[in-house]
Write a structure and sequence with these properties.
This protein is mainly beta and 228 residues long. Helices cover 12% and strands 63% of the residues.
């Protein structure tokens, strides 16, 4: 009789262990259709959606066709890609393959790359690969960028950027080791081996301040002018 009770107890115990293992497996190996992850603070709302999402540990998700929406009281911006990874522990989202960042009106700012990451902790968008950016009448090709968004607008920094500025029917071209754009100020700053070719006149400078609204140089430091 004691043996039968013992065997029954062992059987119940093993069944409980199996149930726990199955439950844990279901929790850690999940597949979601049309997932939605939401993050809120006092200044903005961030929503990440996708076609599907899969996870093996409950904290890291592989998302197909992710779309991130960042909305504040003054503007909205979006990031879309074919694939993405969300790490809920580090709060980092990595976007891959045909990645596009754009503001509510696409003519305001459009960023295209094969890799972009968004950090939910500091609200920073970053890339270390080739990036193509359009801002109003300005095109920038660069080898990476850092973008910070806040209630005042967008500050974008481009690494080793080649620039093309459309001024009516004339193209101004240039280069700088670092190009910074302040969206609310309509200002562009070029630093490090900076130059702008304005219809055959090349302005070389340590630092160039360019007014995007007026399409003209506001200030340059230690500059020289050459003709091509």
């Amino acid at each position: 009789m004691f043996k039968l009770v013992s065997l029954a107890s062992i059987s119940v115990f093993l069944n409980c262990l199996l149930a726990i293992e199955l439950r844990d497996e279901l929790e850690t190996n999940s597949f979601l259709t049309e997932p939605s992850f939401n993050y809120f603070d006092s200044n903005q709302r961030i929503t990440l959606t996708g076609e599907t999402a899969s996870s093996h540990n409950g904290s890291e998700y592989l998302i197909k066709k992710p779309k991130l929406k960042i909305k504040t009281d003054t503007y909205s911006s979006y990031i879309e890609a074919l694939e993405g990874d969300l790490n809920r522990t580090s709060r980092l989202i990595n976007f891959r393959n045909s990645v596009t960042f754009y503001t509510k009106l696409r003519e305001e700012i459009l960023i295209e790359s094969e890799e972009l990451s968004f950090n939910l902790n500091n609200q920073k968008l970053k890339s270390e690969v080739s990036v193509f950016t359009t801002l109003r009448d300005v095109n920038i090709s660069s080898l990476g960028l850092d973008v910070v968004q806040d209630i005042d607008g967008i500050k974008a920094e481009f690494n080793k950027g080649r620039i093309k500025i459309i001024d009516e029917e004339i193209y101004h071209t240039g280069y700088a080791n670092k190009i910074t754009i302040f969206s609310e100020l309509n200002e562009l700053i070029m630093e490090g081996e900076a130059y702008i070719d304005q219809d055959g006149f090349i302005i070389k400078s340590e630092k160039i301040h360019y007014d995007l609204e007026e399409n003209k140089i506001m200030k340059s430091i230690n500059s020289t002018i050459e003709s091509s």
